[in-house]
TrEMBL record:
The record marks 144 as: Raises pKa of active site His. This is Phosphoribosylglycinamide formyltransferase. GO terms for biological process: 'de novo' IMP biosynthetic process. It catalyses: N(1)-(5-phospho-beta-D-ribosyl)glycinamide + (6R)-10-formyltetrahydrofolate = N(2)-formyl-N(1)-(5-phospho-beta-D-ribosyl)glycinamide + (6S)-5,6,7,8-tetrahydrofolate + H(+). It comes from Paenirhodobacter enshiensis.
């Protein structure tokens, strides 16, 4: 199975996906694609022998459709079986998602359906939740709402702020996403619980 990964920044989740695919051979990373040419993840991908391309969303202003018309070109050229959003920070239109529906995954840093959207850790802390976590789900037209493929839980500890909680959740993301993708490419859909 051919896997493309979309990033916007450091790409720590992308690195774990690429490394586990290359170490274990359960799939092949064929492209890393970013909306930001300055994304540090691009070099990390190239250092691991994976083609990395940027399409700068700022070159298209508010014209989301025009940005996506450019973004989809390298993606279609890579001919992926699965597309993984990993720290990708742009909302994709339903038209774009429809092209990959049923084979596009995303990782979101909350225990969906709680806290879709942004600032998830701050919101969990302010709500007084005892735990937080991350979710890998299939991407559908509705933001952060597709079928859940796996979740990882961490405690919220006294004295936590958004940064300390984000760091704790990120370590679980790095375990969860490869665990889900490894199974997903075999057709497994029963959710992973970490
Ligand atoms: C992190 O906040 C992570 O929780 C979310 O995307 C952000 C960047 O992740 N999934 P990455 O290091 O670029 O994978």
């Amino acid at each position: 199975k051919r896997v493309a990964i979309l990033i916007s920044g450091g790409g720590s989740n992308m690195v774990r996906l690429v490394e586990t695919m290359q170490d274990e051979g359960y799939a092949t990373p064929v492209l890393v694609l970013s909306n930001d040419p300055a994304a540090a993840g691009l070099e990390k991908a190239r250092a691991r022998g994976v083609e990395a391309v940027a399409v700068d969303h700022r070159a298209f202003g508010k014209d989301r459709a025009a940005f996506e018309a450019e973004l989809v070109k390298p993606l279609l050229a890579a001919d992926p079986d699965v597309v993984c959003l990993a720290g990708f920070m742009r909302v994709l239109t339903p038209d774009f998602v429809r092209r990959f529906e049923g084979r596009m995954l995303n990782i979101h840093p909350s225990l969906l359906p709680k806290y879709p959207g942004l600032h998830t850790h701050q919101r969990a802390i302010e709500a007084g939740d005892a735990e937080a976590g991350c979710t890998v789900h299939e991407v559908t037209a509705e933001l952060d709402a597709g079928p859940i493929l796996g979740q990882g839980r961490v405690p919220i500890l006294p004295g936590d702020d958004a940064d300390t909680l984000a760091a704790r959740v990120l370590t679980v993301e790095h375990k969860l996403y490869p665990a889900v993708l490894r199974r997903y490419v075999t057709g497994e859909r029963t959710p992973v619980e970490l």
